[in-house]
Amino acid sequence: MRHRNNMNLCSQGYRLTCLGIILMLCFHSPAYGQTTTNKILFDHYGPAQGFKSAQALSIVKAGNGFVWIGTEQGLVRYDGHNFKTYRSDPFNPETISSNYIRYITEDKHGRLWLATTPTLNVFDPKNEKAGLIRYMNPDQNEVDIEAFAFKYEVDKDMMWVTTNHGLMYTHGKKIQLNREYISALPVDNTFRTIQIDANGVFWLAGTHGLYRYDPFTCDVKIFHRPGENPDIPDDDGFMSSYLDESGILWVGNWDYGIMRFDTKTFEKQNYFFADPTKMQNGVLSINKALTAGEENLIWLGTTDGVKTFNKQNHTFNRYSTNDLHDLFGVQGAGFCFQPTESEGLWIGTYNGLHRYDPNKQNIRELTIPFSNSVKDWLISDIIFEPSSVHDSIIWFSIPYNGIFRYDLIHNRFVDIPDKLKKFCTPGINPYTLFVDSENVLWLSTIEHGIVCYNLDLKKLIIPEIKTDNKEKPRILEIIEDEKGNIWLGSLSGLYTYDKEENLIIPVPEIKNYLLKNKKSLYSFILTSDPNGKLWMVTVSDNKANDIVFSYEPVTKKIIAHPQNDFKPLKILSVIQGIHCFADDQLMITSFNGFCMMKITGDSASFTLYDSYNDKPLGVFSDIVTDNSGNIWMSSDVGVTRFDLITNTITNYTNYNSSIGRTHRPDLSFSKKTNTLYIGQDRSINMIDLNKIKFAKPETLILSDLKILNYEVPSIPESEETIELSYQQNTFHFEFSNLSFTNSMENKYKYILGDENDNWTNMDNNMLNFNNLGYGKYVLKVEAENSFGLKSQNQFLLYIHIHPPFWRTWWFNTLIICAASFVIYSIFRYRDIQRQKLEKLRHSIARDLHDDMGSTLSHIRILSEREAMRSKNITPYKNISDKTAEVMNNMSEIIWSINPKNDSFKNIVRKLQEFAIDSLEPLNINVRFDIDDIPDSIKLSPEDRRHFYLIFKEAINNAAKYSKATETKFTVKIVGKNLQTEFIDNGVGFDPLLITRGNGLKNMENRAGQLGGKINITTGTNGTAVSLIFKK
Questions:
Q1: What are phi and psi of 397, to 5 degrees?
Q2: Contacts 24+ apart (CB under 8 A), 311-316
Q3: What is the CATH number of the domain that holds 977?
Q4: Distance from the CA of 95 to the CA of which of 17, 245, 547, 892 falls in 20 to 30 A?
Q5: Are residues 1030 and 906 part of one domain?
Q6: Does one domain contain both 912 and 942?
Q7: 889 plus 910 within the same structural domain
Q8: Can you tell me whether residue 8 is helix, strand or coil?
Q9: Residues 587-603: pLDDT tens digits?
């Protein structure tokens, strides 16, 4: 009778929030007889990871790669890095109508169907808008409906919805709800789950029972749980279901566990995870397991937490925990599951979002059954007995606590041979263990030195050690080269083993070399290459310069590579290990990363790895090579895998895996089984490299985009173009490679611009650009997941930021046209004015010539006539001369006004005529030296007059005062200047005699008006007048 009132409340339409309250109370009920037999590392998502909601009520992995979570706080999207929440806004009809989302499913059109209590919504992730779905009832009224479960038939594109108005469906892209009328079912019968079998038969489960509905025959059958009490309403209490591939329907009950129902034979059987008379056996969700090897398991979300149920042996495993920091358990009552092939099983509970990631289960833990009193026993020096099957018999040491032999198959200690026991007993402090190719076990301890035991012959061998002093060497490392020679590294030099003499002897060449060069005798970091050459690391006395050196046993040749001579070695600082992984290549580990050393003859080159994707690498120590050639190194936080082909680094740390917390653990590798063994505190971690799982590379997408002053209509896909104005030039990008395994270690890099630009590593998946200039940009982004695998694509986005209108070609063209028009108008106006002025000058010249000229000619004629009649001719002659002079001046004025004479060439020609007319009658020879003057050189009327009168004055002065016999008139074009000169060979003149009239001052003033410079020189050898001005 427990919880019966709660069942009635639910059947009366109370919201599922009541269920949440009940689950919270029930979660604290004790579980009975459930132990976890298979340890699983879970991922947990809460406020620290960005998941702000308390409950994950439903989950779906959408076709675009996003994970969508229905919560009590709204719809949440997760891209592997960030959670984005979509909440209800009562003032915006394009948002979800309620924040409490019980169920989610996706159709083939990419739409999300949401059971948003107490309504039904459809959400479009492309434009991030939601719509409320209503039902048109028989009265032709639209009513809200409350959805409880969905079932989507992909091939038919048909969505089935169980609602408070019965079973409904819609077909195709257009959403129009239709009711499936089932006469045998009451309208108010609400179903919590729906399944459709291979024959198209519906299986509907709810509080009233399990219904079989055949839509082809309209036949309905009802089934109840075993032990159902017909006198109690809603005693079935079915809440969840899952139909497996064999046709078995698994139905979860509110109180009575899980029911197995055969849809072919109708046989049924109930299973409980606890005593139902003492504890609620609520199963709220059921789903299949996708991980290989878990085919017989189904996952259950129960009121007692998350569990699995084995369909073969009918046993439950509980994965619940109350510890917030427990990575191997899940908190809260289980609400939902979403299995995916790429990232495993998503789990929603009353206490948040979780995930079972198969890619993080690569590490198995073998707990060694030491006594409970044993603490901090660190396992190291794991070696394998070659004769054991699958390397199942191992030896290992515990510092200061002895040497042990262990059976991995039966998980128990194995007896140590009697002859060896005293050398392995607790209290013994071992240095190292080694098994050679002849199956001889080598033990090095503080107490007994070197002890050997032939595992095949069961023979104890104690080699004699030859040394220069009484103190026995501390052998810290033992190796065997390709030729079977045994080499022993110690704190006092290198030793080798003489099998015939059963004698361990020092290698004098090494010791002498180290002492001679003042180096430490430490020679325990060593390896051998396939050619039999030994490689060692030692330090100088002041420990400031580690030395990597090689030793050729045959030739005794030693070649040193000091840290100070090689920058990569210097950066590495304190070297921790050396390992040969190829004929001519070695790996060196240190406190500051690692490097690869390539040998070419006696020289070496180094490739340094002190950082990876701009993040510093830490301390590395032990080194092994697996059967695929990959390098494994122990680190401060676990182990690191280095892929020699792709040069990618994968870290297995106590932050992202189930590896132990030992710093720089001891590594051993079994070639037989291709398994890596990692020594931990009282346990051994194992990685089976034949079964190791890596997260597959997914598609790189743009998950979010924000642009200042721009509302992004939809997130662009790769190779799309976005057109923006110049004010929309500040960007915030969020990318995702949709790889959820250790997503914090996903790496991104980008190029903005030319293909030849260098890639820039991103700190995370976000990218910001502020105030980009206008133009066209190409943004390229690449990503790799936490295993170093590149995403399937390179994301490309073409960005076109349009310039402001004043920087556009059409605006510039308009401005040029406008400026050209203004300039043209100005020049056109000036040209028109010039033409008007020329017409006026023509008119004035014509009028002066015609009117004034004829009048003066008439006066001159009359004067000359009267002079011929009169005896006193002097007055008339003066009148005639003055009239002639006026006419001559008038002729010059008319000449200067006439626009035809504007060219400089005509001015020079006029001066030539004047010089000839003025000087040749006086028997003064005139020579001209004049350049070819272009017609394009013109002077304004004012400048023309100044130029003409300057040299007219010079010619008049020569005619009146010089008494010259020779004159020369020169006109030269020098660059942008006109250089004119008039020279005579006369007696010169006194400037004081020509200060009036057109004298020197007038010449200088006119030169100034021309913007030129005049120079007048005179003397007994003649006079020169020179004028320079711009043409």
A1: -120, 155
A2: 311/244, 311/248, 311/260, 314/271, 316/34, 316/271, 316/273
A3: 3.30.565.10
A4: 17
A5: yes
A6: yes
A7: no
A8: helix
A9: 999 999 999 999 999 99
CA distance 743 to 701: 14
Q: Is residue 817 domain-shared with residue 786, that is, in the same domain?
A: no
Say if strands 101-106 and 83-86 run parallel, antiparallel, or are unpaired: unpaired
Q: In Å, what is the CA distance from 107 to each residue of 76, 523, 687?
A: 18, 67, 40
In a shared domain, residues 492 and 517: yes
Distance separating alpha carbons of residues 420 and 461, to the nearest angstrom: 10
Please give the distance of CA 24 from its chain centroid, rounded to a whole number: 42
Residue 417 DSSP label: P
Alpha helices in 799-903 (DSSP H): 809-847, 853-869, 874-897
Q: How many independent structural domains does the chain possess? A: 4
Query: Which of 798, 830, 849 is the endpoint of a domain?
Result: 798
- Whether 985 maps to a domain, the answer reads yes
Does 746 share its domain with 785?
Answer: yes
Are 915 and 894 members of one domain? no
What is the rounded CA–CA span in Å between residue 401 and residue 378? 10
| Choice among 15-29, 642-656, 814-828 with the minimum mean pLDDT | 15-29
**What CATH number is given to the structural domain containing 735?**
2.60.40.10
770 domain residue, yes or no: yes
pLDDT (tens digit per residue) in 65-113: 999 999 999 999 999 999 999 999 999 999 999 999 999 999 999 999 9
Instruction: Provide the edge-to-edge strand list for the sheet that holds 575-582.
Output: 575-582, 585-590, 593-600, 603-609
The arrangement of strands across the sheet holding 557-562 comes to 525-528, 534-538, 547-552, 557-562
User: Which strand (E) or helix (H) includes residue 394?
Assistant: strand 393-398
The whole domain housing 742 covers 701-798
Say how far apart CA 122 and CA 93 lie, in whole Å. 12
Nearest C-alpha neighbor of 42 from the set 268, 308, 383, 274 = 308
Residues 864, 883, single domain; the answer is: yes
Please, is 835 exposed, middle or buried when counting C-beta atoms within 10 Å of its C-beta (0-12, 13-18, 19+)? exposed
- The reply to whether 585 falls in a domain is yes
**How many of the other CB atoms lie within 10 Å of CB of 354?**
24
In a domain, 509, yes or no: yes
Name the burial class of residue 307, with classes exposed (0-12), middle (13-18) and buried (19+) by CB atoms within 10 angstroms of its CB.
buried
Beta strands in 16-157 (DSSP E): 42-45, 56-61, 67-71, 74-78, 83-86, 101-106, 112-116, 119-124, 129-136, 142-144, 147-153
- The Cβ of residue 390 has, within 10 Å, a number of other Cβ atoms equal to 12
At 656-671, the pLDDT tens digits run: 888 999 999 999 999 9
Would you call 22 helix, strand, or coil by DSSP? helix
CATH of the domain at 540: 2.130.10.10
Query: Is the Cβ–Cβ distance between 345 and 334 less than 8 Å?
Result: no
